[in-house]
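User: Sequence recovery, please. Input:
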């Protein structure tokens, strides 16, 4: 399934449009997102706050990872879609040694085109001679690689990582932001096993659904299925122990899972107060229900400890 099904790839357009809707109102800043997608319909405040918690929670942990490693790091984004993190990190001078983005070819082909078209994006991926190696679906630059692969096929993933000059010895952070759930969970387990056994120091940040067995979860599932999108990996989203055990079973040393209500309470509260003033929210119940159905999990193997409140080494 090299190209993935269309319903799954379309989830990227939706995520990018929701993020842009929030960015335009000032929930967080992202100077690159409007280069990826035209602005669309304004979304509801709960959607904006949901994406705020997801993006800010990820970024908070990524910054903690940089602090904990204190050296150049390698990052791999699975199901990266039109994510702009690479350009933000480089703009901030973060020590990125290698950055690899993976998605289905339908998505990577469009992203390749967008990068070529916008010199603000292209300038940060080219090498010192201003060169990039490009095919229709893959782009290889100086320290940035965008490749078409099915991340749940470990041979396909391995081959594409190696084309992207992956360094198995470099401290590595793998990210999956709302992506694993679309892939078969037995195949994701094998991919997680391949990652934990191949890198000398590796961490994983995963954002996806949680508590999908209750009524609210079934309605979420039905909505996605009616938009032609299968959640083949939903069994791993049953609860936090399912989220944790899929990592520990696959050879990861530790894993911790926070539901998004917990993440929201652990994020810098001054900024939460700022974003809660942007739009009027009738009541918080729907937001809290949404947050109860998503989570962030951090798994590590021989990687320094980093989480929402501390940095220490164990
Ligand atoms: C909901 S979007 C999220 C995009 C981005 N991570 C974000 O949060 O903005 C899910 C992405 O995962 C990609 N994806 C899902 N399953 C995949 C697989 N098995 N291999 C590669 N990409 C996959 C889809 O094509 C889509 O771009």
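Assistant: Recovered sequence (314 residues):
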């Amino acid at each position: 399934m090299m190209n993935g099904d269309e319903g799954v790839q379309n989830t990227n357009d939706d995520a990018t449009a929701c993020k842009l809707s929030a960015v335009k109102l000032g929930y967080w800043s992202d100077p690159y997102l409007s280069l990826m997608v035209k602005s669309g319909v304004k979304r509801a405040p709960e959607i904006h706050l949901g994406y705020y918690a997801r993006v800010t929670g990820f970024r908070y942990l990524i910054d903690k990872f940089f602090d904990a490693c204190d050296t150049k790091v390698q990052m791999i984004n699975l199901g990266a879609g039109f994510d702009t993190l690479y350009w933000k990190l480089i703009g901030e001078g973060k020590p990125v040694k290698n950055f690899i983005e993976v998605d289905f070819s339908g998505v990577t082909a469009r992203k390749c085109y967008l990068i070529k078209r916008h010199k603000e994006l292209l300038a940060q991926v080219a090498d010192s001679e201003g060169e990039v190696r490009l095919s229709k679906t893959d782009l290889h630059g100086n320290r940035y690689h965008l490749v078409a692969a099915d991340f749940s096929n470990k041979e396909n993933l391995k081959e594409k990582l190696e084309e992207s000059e992956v360094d198995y010895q470099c401290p590595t952070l793998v990210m999956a932001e709302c992506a694993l759930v679309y892939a078969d969970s037995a195949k994701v387990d094998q991919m997680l096993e391949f990652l934990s056994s191949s890198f000398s120091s590796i961490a994983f940040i995963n954002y996806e659904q949680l508590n999908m067995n209750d009524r609210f979860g079934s309605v979420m599932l039905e909505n996605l299925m009616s938009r032609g999108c299968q959640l083949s990996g939903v069994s791993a989203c049953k609860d936090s122990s399912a989220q944790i055990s899929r990592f520990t079973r696959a050879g990861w040393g530790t894993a911790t899972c926070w539901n998004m209500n917990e993440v929201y309470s652990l994020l810098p509260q001054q900024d939460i107060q700022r974003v809660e003033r942007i739009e009027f929210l009738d009541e918080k119940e729907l937001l809290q229900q949404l947050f109860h159905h998503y989570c962030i999990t951090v798994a590590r193997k021989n990687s320094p400890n980093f989480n929402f409140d501390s940095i220490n080494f164990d």
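The first helix runs from residue 6 to 25.
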